[in-house]
Amino acid sequence: MKTALSKTIRQIDVMIAPWVLSAVKELNAFNTYLFHALFIDKAELSKGIADPQQQVTVDVFRQFITYHKENGFTFVSPDEVLRGLSPDKKYIMVTFDDGYYNNLRALPVLEEFNVPALFFISANHVRYNKAFWWDVAYREGKKARMTDDAILAEKEHLLTLTDVEIDTYLTNKYGPGCLKPIGDTDRPFTPSELHTFSQHPLVYIGNHTCDHAVLTNYDAEGIKEQISKAQEIIEDMVGYRPETIAYPCGEFNDTVLQVCKQEGIKLGITVHHAKNFSPQLYDSKNLLTLNRFTIWGDQDVKNQCDFYRSDYHMFDKVKEVYTKLKAKI
Ligand SMILES: [Zn+2]
Question: Start and end of every NodB homology domain (predicted)?
């Protein structure tokens, strides 16, 4: 569908979500949510050091947790998901991708509400104190006075490459030092920080590949190396082999799923925006392709959560009709 029309219908869906929630009983489901960097406040966000991404501050994160506590959700750890969830409750799992040191800022909130969270680690970024490529592209692009559209277009191009190709592209353009983090805003955990963090009872650690590899850009050998090596490196750092994975950028294929099974990974998460319903939850293939929502810090938290919880979206209906009509033409 045309982007402007899709956007308008989505905006209407967000507007009517509170009404839908009060009129139509919410279906019990297991919802997972994705966070990346956690910024102290808007001032840190606007420094240009790191890609603002979803622009989530600690305050936005606290609002998100409070909302779900007030609306009867049970927060679960990956271990509880793997032991099996009851179809009679509404569940939620909090996840953070990449391995940013700034994720430490989530801990006081998690402790305050006694909420577990799953942190997916890009292993070599931690091992080598390497900046994440999207932060480098953003920071250096801004310095070079590129427009936001040009930075976005460059990021979209980089998403189609392997980690080695991305590093070559960035170092050729901005020099060999560009992959060094600037400070606590953009750096990953150090291995010893990650070790200490992982010992916290509310913290669970998962695989996010060795080099934040968009796995569908790799051949079978590359996929195996990215997943299996990350299992080893993470085990070295935290003392156990992850049973969970978040596919970078949500991309996976049959080879990826096969390698995950071989590696003893039981729970895999994408970035497909949808709820997870039982009984599909109990099919092992579905557990490796779980859906996940994303929260944006520049939009109202309640509106977004209402929208995700609502089981009626005009957008889906219009899309269905549009697809049928298109097939007939
Ligand atoms: Zn990621």
Answer: 90-329
Q: Which CATH superfamily is domain 3-14+30-130+190-328 in?
A: Glycoside hydrolase/deacetylase (3.20.20.370)
72: three-class secondary structure by DSSP? coil
Question: How far is the centre of ligand 1, averaged over its atoms, from the C-alpha of 299 (Å)?
Answer: 21
The answer to whether 292 and 272 have CB atoms below 8 angstroms apart is yes
Contacts of 272 (CB under 8 A, 6+ apart): 250, 289, 291, 292
Burial of 266: CB neighbours in 10 Å, binned 0-12, 13-18, 19+: middle
Q: Tell me the residues surrounding ligand 1 (ion) with CB < 5 Å.
A: 97-98, 248
- Residue 98 Cα to ligand 1 midpoint, Å, equals 5
Q: Is 74 left (phi over 0), alpha (psi -120 to 50) or beta?
A: beta
Q: How far is the CA of 189 from the centre of ligand 1 (A)?
A: 14
- For the chain, the structural domain boundaries read 3-14+30-130+190-328, 132-180
Instruction: Report how far ligand 1's centroid is from the alpha carbon of 147 (Å).
Output: 24
Q: From ligand 1's centre to the CA of 170, what distance in Å?
A: 18
Q: How confident is the model at residue 260 (pLDDT cuts 50, 70, 90)?
A: very high
Rounded to the nearest angstrom, the distance between the alpha carbon of 159 and the centre of ligand 1 is 11
Is 91 within 8 Å of 85 (Cβ atoms)?
yes
CA-based radius of gyration for the chain: 20
